[in-house]
Amino acid sequence: MGLEHAAAMQTEITDQRIEGTRVFRAPGRVNLVGEHTDYNEGFVMPAAINFATTVTVAPRADRRLSVFSENCEEAIEFDLDDPKLRAASHWSDYVKGVAVVLEQSDHRLRGANLRIHGEVPIGSGLSSSAALEVSTAFALLANSGHCVAPVDVAKLCQRAENEFVGMRCGIMDQFISCCGQADRALMLDCRSLDYRVLPVPTDVRLVISNTMVKHELASSQYNVRRAECEAGVHHFAQSRPGVRALRDVTETELERARVDLSEVIYRRCRHIVSENARVLEAAEALESGDLDSFGQRMNESHRSLRDDYEVSCKELDLMVELAGHVDGVYGSRMTGGGFGGCTISIVEAERVKDFERTVARGYEEETGLKPEIYVCRAAAGAGEVT
Ligand code: GLA
Prior knowledge:
Layout: H1 3-14, E1 22-31, E2 43-44, E3 46-59, E4 64-69, E5 74-79, H2 92-104, E6 112-118, H3 128-143, H4 150-165, H5 172-179, E7 184-189, E8 195-199, E9 204-214, H6 217-239, H7 251-257, H8 263-287, H9 291-307, H10 314-324, E10 329-335, E11 340-348, H11 352-367, E12 372-376, E13 383-384
Parallel strand pairs: 4-6
Antiparallel strand pairs: 1-3, 1-13, 2-7, 3-6, 4-5, 7-8, 9-11, 9-12, 10-11
The structure holds alpha-D-galactopyranose.
C-alpha cells in the first residue's frame, strides 16, 4: 500500500464518527537498577516514563490489518490469515509479531486500521519496541472484544519479541509498560512476577541522558550474554540441581567455583549475582528514603556492567562520569541493554538545570555529539486514552 492510501486511512481513522474508533497508549521505561538480571530470573527496578506510543484503532469488516506509522510515514497491510508472515527487520515486525502471537494464543482478532505515533526515542534503550508491542496488543485485543490482564499482555508481547522478532529479551520492558504506576518504581521479581511498589521521592528527578549512539554490537552481544549466563547455570546445576538460573547462585558458591569457571563466565556470573543483591539493597534504600545509599548502588551497578558484564561503551562511561561531577546527583548508570543508548541519573530537582548544562556541554566537548536530556517522571502503565 502506498502513501496515498495511508493518507486516506489517516482521515478515516482519526474521524471520531467511525464507530468503535479507540486510542491506546503504552509507555517506554527507564530501569533504575537491575540490568540484565531479568532473563536470569532475578530482580529489576524499572519505572514507566512519560514518553509513550499511541495506537488509534478502528475495526474493519475483513481480517486485514492496515497499519500506518506516523514516525516512518509508512503504511503496511497484511492478512491475519496469511500463514507466511515473517520478521523482516522492519518496524512492522512488532505489530505482526503481536498479532501472530495473540492469534496463536486463542485470541481471535478482528481486522483493523491502526495508526501509530511513537514518542519514545527509537533505539535509545528506553524500550520503544515494548511500547509499540504493548500499545498494539491493547488496541488489537480491545478491538476484538478480548479482556486480558496486563501481566498476561506483557507475557504475550515478550513472546512476540522472542519468537517472531527473534530478540531473546526478558520480561522487564513489557511488564513495566503494562503495569507501571505514576510516581512509582516497581521492584519486580522476574521469576514469580511479584513486585513491590516503591515511591520515587518528589524532590528528585529521573534524568535520562541520551548518548545518541547505538553500537552495532547491541543485539548480537545481548544474545551472547544470555548464552554466557546459561553456561554459568550449567556449571552450577551440575553440583546443585536446584540451580535453575543465576538467580539461585549465592556469592559464596560463586567464589568457590571461581577456579573452575573461565575468567569471562566468572565475571558474567559475578555481575548477575552482585546486581541482584544491589536491587534488593536499593529497594530498602528507596523505601527508607536513603537516596545516598540508593545512588551508590546505581554507581556500583554501572561499574559492574562496564567491567564484569562488558556491555557499556565509552560514551556511556563518559556520560556517567560527567554526571558524577555535578552537585545534587545521587547516582548515575547506563540503563537498558547497553552498547549505547541512555544513562539514568537521580538528581535533586533544583539541580536539574545545572545538570543539563554541565553534562551536555562536557559530552559535546568530548565527543562532538549533542546529547538529548529528558527530565522524566514515573508514569502509569498502558491503557486506553479517554
Ligand atoms: C533490554 C531487554 C530487557 C533487559 C535489558 C537489560 O532492554 O529488552 O529484557 O534484559 O535489556 O537489563
